[in-house]
Amino acid sequence: MNSSAALERGYRRLLAWYPRAFRAEREDEILAVLMAGAEQGQRRPRLTEAADLIKNAVVIRLFPGRTGPERRDLADGLAVFSLVAPLFLIAADILHVALPYHFPANPAVLRVFGPHREIGGMSLLRLHFFDIAVGCEVLIAALVLLGQRLLALLAIPATVIFWAASSWWIPALPYPLQLITAGVFLLEMAALLASPGPRRGRELVTWRHGVVLLAAAGAFQGFALWYAATNRPIFAWTAHPVTAAYVITGIALAAAAVVLAVVFHLNRYFLLVFAAACYPCAMQLAFSAFRTNLLSHPTPDHLAVLFLPPVLFALGLVGAAGMRARARVPAKPASPA
After folding, report:
1. According to the model, what pLDDT value does residue 115 have?
2. At residue 147, what are phi and psi to the nearest 5 degrees?
3. Alpha-carbon Rg for the chain in angstroms
4. Which residue range forms the structural domain that includes residue 36?
5. Looking at the domain assignment, is residue 337 inside a domain?
6. Range name among 101-105, 109-113, 243-247 with the lowest pLDDT average
7. Which end of the chain, N or C, is less packed with Cβ atoms under 10 Å?
8. What DSSP letter does each residue of 242-274 carry, written as one string?
9. Pairwise CA distance, residues 261 & 250, whole Å
10. Angle formed at CA 160 by CA 171 and CA 194, multiple of 5 degrees
11. Residue among 55, 86, 18, 59 nearest 316 (CA)
């Protein structure tokens, strides 16, 4: 292999760091410039060239430009998430009421709990603050469906402040449902701030998104049932062998959601943001498998494990949107002498 072919191959390996759409449009042009500036007999890219190409590739992936497929994909994915994420929470609430965890019917359970041997179920509807919590979620969902981004941005922090002021209601909900709500609200705020908004999401959402989110909600409920049966010390002695079916069901539905998302070619940024919203709940479930409950008596370390990554992710989305907005502001013309 001559030096020119080896050098071109080295440049192409570095250009592979760039987004596919960018390479399709600019790779040949950039490669021609690099090859024209190479020294006689050079066989591989210089270290400074490699560092510069990789740095620019990372910047383009993190902060897409004003136009181009990558920029539109990111904005569209956030817009779709801003529309469907509140609907996912409502689906999770419905499943939690419709499919509760029932304690085994043995004398010890009956002595402690009486006839109400369940976590979740219709009994939740008799809890005043659960009704208010679900009502707030329905209000936020209605606002995004109507395209009222500003009102939704105001409603989410108002809801969180109300819940914080009424902290004694929290034991009424299992930890997975609390954590999935917190994660979705956090990323919903970021998506509303960093995207064209739910009006654009209405133009993009299809029945395919609904199928994937229903499968994801079913997977969440399967894991929530397993958590209720096995990972509360006060209830651990009530677990029975059928709890393994909850884990199997959760894994099967989660795998189905992933496969369907790939088959339906859903926006990858939408899927990434949805995964970030599920992160706190997933971490709680993962730690609870080792009998460690991060939320029962939370320490700063526990809260950092649960919420620091999605918070940083949300701040990155908002920061990237702010940088793009500043880039779109035209420079002021010079004033005449």
Report:
1. 53
2. 80, 20
3. 25
4. 1-42
5. no
6. 109-113
7. C
8. THHHHHHHHHHHHHHHHHHHHHTT--HHHHHHH
9. 16
10. 135
11. 59
